[in-house]
Amino acid sequence: MRKKKILSIICIISMLISLQNINACATGNASEPTTEIIASDEADKYTEITVDGLIYNVFSDHAEIVNINYNETPKNIVIPEMVGGKPVTKIRKSYLFNEQVISVSFPDTIIDFPYGCMSGCEELESVKLPAHIKILPLNTFTAAKNSNQ
After folding, report:
1. What is the CATH number of the domain that holds 57?
2. Percentage of residues in the chain with pLDDT exceeding 90?
3. Which structural domain range is residue 72 located in?
4. φ and ψ at residue 73, rounded to 5 degrees
5. Out of 17-21, 86-90, 124-128, least confident range
6. Strand order in the sheet with 46-51
7. Is 22 a domain residue?
C-alpha cells in the first residue's frame, strides 16, 4: 500500500512537470520580455513589453505604461516616445514610480497623467514634462524632495 502512495505521488509530480514544459513550449521562451495577450474583444488585444523595467501594453494604435519592475528600473528614467512601434500615450497606474527615482523624462506623446503617478518619489530632483501638459492631477509630486519647484 505504501509503495502505491509513493508511486502515485511520483506520477502526479511528473505530470505537473510535463504540463509546465508544455506550457513553456506553447508560449515560447519564458524569459522572453514580450508576451502576447489576446482578449475576447479585438480592440482589447495587446502585447506586453518590458523596457528598462517599465511594463507597457502595446495596442494596435498606442502603448501605455501599466506597471513597473522595481528591481530593474533605473534611477534616471527616460520613457521612449515609441514602444513596439506605437506611441506611448498614457500612464495607467497611480503611484507608479518608487522613492529611488531621481529623474524622469516623459516624451511629448504622453497625453495625460494619473492621480499621484510620481507620489512617493522622495529622491526626485528632475522631471521633463511634455510641453502640451499645462495641468497635472492632484498629488502628482506628493513627497518629492523638490516638489515645490
Report:
1. 3.80.10.10
2. 27
3. 52-149
4. -85, 130
5. 17-21
6. 34-37, 46-51, 54-58, 63-68, 86-91, 82-83
7. no
- Domain membership of residue 96 (yes or no) is yes
Q: Write out pLDDT tens, residues 32-77.
A: 344 445 444 556 789 999 998 889 999 999 999 998 887 877 889 8
Within a domain: 37: no
Q: Is residue 39 assigned to a domain?
A: no
CB 126 within 8 A of CB 144: no
* 104 beta partners: 77, 127
> Which three cell numbers, joined as nine digits, stand for 72?
530593474
CA distance 55 to 49: 6
For the entire predicted model, the pTM comes to 0.67
Three-state secondary-structure class, residue 10: helix
Give a three-class secondary structure readout of 1-17: CHHHHHHHHHHHHHHHH
Angstrom distances, CA of residue 109 to CA of 24, 85, 86: 35, 13, 10
Dist. CA 91–CA 94, nearest whole Å: 8
